[in-house]
Amino acid sequence: MPKMKTHSGAKKRLRITGSGKVMHERTNRRHLLEGKSSRRTRRLSVDVVTSPADVRTARALLGR
Q: Is the Cβ–Cβ distance between 44 and 26 less than 8 Å?
């Protein structure tokens, strides 16, 4: 039986912590950063826990 392949898009966007939480980056931090305040860009730079509704799907895409 061949191995399952990890979903390429998911592995670029999501990561699983040591304790098993699924984390992702916040949106709005890619471009047009000059117009956004430093306070806002700092806040957006922190990874956040993925919502419980999406965790099951995320784990399946990552092969976990």
A: yes
Task: For the chain, 64 residues long, give each residue's pLDDT as a single digit of tens.
Answer: 899 999 999 999 999 999 999 999 999 999 999 999 999 999 999 999 999 999 999 999 999 9
Length of the chain equals 64
Strand partners, 49: 23
Strands (E) across 1-64 are located at 14-16, 22-24, 48-49
Handedness of CA 44, 49, 50, 51 (dihedral sign): negative
Give the pTM: 0.85
Partnered with residue 24 across adjacent β-strands are 14, 48
